[in-house]
Amino acid sequence: MNLRHQIFVSSTFTDLVAERQSVINALLRLKCWPAVMEQFTAASQTPWDYITRVLDESDYFIVIVGSRYGSVDAEGIGFTEREFDYAEKIGLPILGFVKHPLPEVSTSSAEALVDAQRLVAFREKVETKLVDRFSDPADLAAKVVQAVVFAQQESPREGWVRAGSLAEVESVELANLRATVATLKLEAQELREELRRAEADEVHTFASGTDTVDIHYHRGLAEALASNPTGIMQLTWDEVFKAIGPKLRAPCKDDSAMRALAELISQREVSDDPLSGATIVSSDTDAIFAQLEATGLIETDGKKARNGVFWILTEPGKARLRDLLATRRTEEPPAQGEPNLPAPDGPEREQPEPGPSTGE
Length: 360
Hints:
Layout: E1 6-11, H1 17-29, E2 33-35, H2 47-57, E3 60-65, H3 79-89, E4 94-99, H4 110-126, E5 131-134, H5 137-154, H6 163-203, E6 212-219, H7 220-224, E7 231-236, H8 237-244, E8 252-253, H9 254-268, E9 278-280, H10 282-294, E10 298-304, E11 309-313, H11 315-325
Parallel strand pairs: 1-2, 1-3, 3-4, 4-5
Antiparallel strand pairs: 6-7, 6-9, 8-11, 10-11
């Protein structure tokens, strides 16, 4: 990108004509745009309004201090000092250059004495920044080049570019952003896959499938009021999930789902008690749902109930329940394109070859 910087050059004029020209030439060699007062044209704005607008558009500020303080405004402040103060206010990087050895300043009159005092005070203000001393225009030009190059590296500024170059830059930046987004999407996908594999590996460490679990329950209404359960039935985790899974196709509370498991236990245990009915202990209910959640078959739905939470099948849970409930084929289906014809009753008879025909 062909980036150029605008650099405001501030100084008194009549005592630094050669020095200003050397600075302008040095900036042009650096492919910078020097902004100098002698190049400003007539405008409807006041001089100071125009100067501040140019300063606002500039990237760096060069101030050169010689043997004169310069013309002052109604408040008794020189224009060079006002430009310096405004550049400092808006945060422009300031490059200061002070002539050395210091030229002799006339103090033959009261006006000259006041000018000299203002010059000394302004020079001291400039020297609070990093400044360079110069002896002649050539020395000043060389030091300006060094200072500008250093400032561009240490304090990079926005600068100016051609409109066409800006469009190219935006196209490159857009392409880079798209590439970055694609990379981030790929990394996110890889992280999701890694997390999925980690979760799958963790699921395999939990009891499931044909592993067994002891279910503790109370027999009948009277026993349900007692403290200790008397019934224990051993089931596989597949049997447990097959019993309560259908209830969890829609959000369901754990006690509603566990009634289906209690019915299974009641069916398997024959009792003469007409009030018989299994009631699974609450600690086993909590353990069962924790186990099914750990194996990735169920998850909480997010709905809140007055007592308990709602559970629902996960996608792996739906697939596992389908495998447990669905009936599979007992025979292999015929190959594609092959007619599904019944087998013949016996071996196919050979057809007799036709004999010679006889005529009458």
